[in-house]
């Protein structure tokens, strides 16, 4: 299986997970043109998209879903509440009912040769989930907008060979930054976003011999930097006395494709 971030951050998110025969986008919070160009860069024909999965209805995750669904006639998966909230946004436009596939948080379903599991997450949205993907004996997990994590979330993410995980903000940068107090409190809350430090702790708790690659994503433009995120996560790994020399750490670009991970 393969994993690549096409865009990641508060201005737009779009992640690719696929196999030789199945091609999935997790969220399209960018323009259809940009999403299609990102797929072209990893030699995936957008016309061969198998599905779009929606995690939640915030604009940085859905703004391009309608365009991509209509242009390539691909199905759109999400919980009933999430897709309902998404379709209320004027920017989405009409999506044919036969293209909408309603799933339940906590359920698993098949997309081609990939088994997808939707797990509830903690975020300030109507019914947010994150997704894990299994094909053969390989597993990829994509988890952002977590706010916090618990045993259920760790169980869902365990055993991943490749992991795309949120490292949204540096706490000190956020506290000293220009955001209003209420927004700082929302980001720091259990329904906000994972800090670099919490991301590092979660990675340590998920570490196992089969974990090969970790991509840090959903970095805040105002409250984080790629080098800061990497160093913070590495410090947490050191503090936990973890030997993760076998794990390659990467950072997803805000407007550019990340490294293409193959597992």
List its traits.
single chain; 263 residues; alpha/beta; 7-stranded mixed β-sheet; 9 helices; 14 strands; 25% strand
| Strand portion | 25-35%
> Share of helix among residues?
25-40%
Give helix and strand order, one letter per element, not per position: EEEHEHHEHEEEEEHEHHHEHEE
Q: What is the number of E strands?
A: 14
* Main beta-sheet annotation: 7 strands, mixed
- Strand order in the sheet with the most strands: 6-5-4-3-2-1-14
Q: What is the oligomer described by this structure? A: single chain
So how many helices? 9
Poorly predicted runs are: none
Based on CA atoms alone, the radius of gyration comes out at 17 Å
Coarse morphology: globular
In whole angstroms, how far apart are the ends? 5 Å
What is the mean predicted local confidence, pLDDT? 95
Describe the secondary structure blueprint for this structure.
Blueprint: E1 2-7, E2 14-18, E3 23-26, H1 32-41, E4 51-53, H2 59-62, H3 65-72, E5 76-79, H4 80-87, E6 100-103, E7 108-111, E8 114-120, E9 129-135, E10 138-143, H5 151-157, E11 162-166, H6 171-176, H7 181-188, H8 196-206, E12 213-217, H9 226-239, E13 248-251, E14 261-262
Parallel strand pairs: 3-4, 4-5, 5-6, 10-11, 11-12, 12-13
Antiparallel strand pairs: 1-2, 1-14, 2-3, 7-8, 8-9, 9-10
Helix pairs in contact: 8-9
């Amino acid at each position: 299986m393969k994993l690549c971030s096409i865009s990641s951050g508060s201005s737009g998110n779009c992640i690719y997970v696929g196999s030789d025969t199945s091609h999935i986008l997790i969220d399209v919070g960018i323009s259809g043109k940009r999403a299609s160009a990102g797929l072209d860069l990893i030699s995936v024909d957008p016309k061969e998209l198998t599905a779009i999965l929606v995690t939640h209805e915030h604009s940085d995750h859905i703004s391009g879903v309608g365009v991509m669904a209509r242009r390539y006639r691909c199905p759109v998966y999400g919980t009933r509440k999430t897709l309902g909230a998404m379709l209320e946004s004027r920017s989405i436009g009409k999506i044919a009912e036969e293209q909408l596939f309603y799933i339940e948080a906590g359920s698993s379903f098949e997309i081609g040769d990939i088994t997808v599991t939707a797990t509830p997450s903690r975020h300030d949205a109507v019914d947010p989930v994150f997704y894990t993907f299994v094909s053969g004996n390989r597993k990829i997990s994509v988890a952002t907008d977590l706010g916090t994590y618990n045993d259920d979330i760790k169980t869902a993410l365990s055993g991943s060979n490749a992991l795309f995980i949120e490292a949204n903000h540096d706490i000190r940068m956020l506290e000293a930054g220009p955001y209003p107090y209420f927004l700082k409190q929302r980001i720091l809350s259990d329904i906000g976003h994972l800090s670099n430090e919490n991301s590092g702790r979660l990675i340590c708790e998920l570490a196992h011999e089969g974990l090969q690659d970790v991509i840090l994503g959903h970095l805040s433009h105002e409250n984080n930097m790629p080098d800061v995120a990497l160093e913070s996560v590495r410090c947490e790994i050191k503090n936990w006395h973890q030997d993760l020399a076998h794990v390659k750490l990467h950072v997803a670009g805000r407007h550019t494709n990340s490294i293409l991970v193959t597992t």
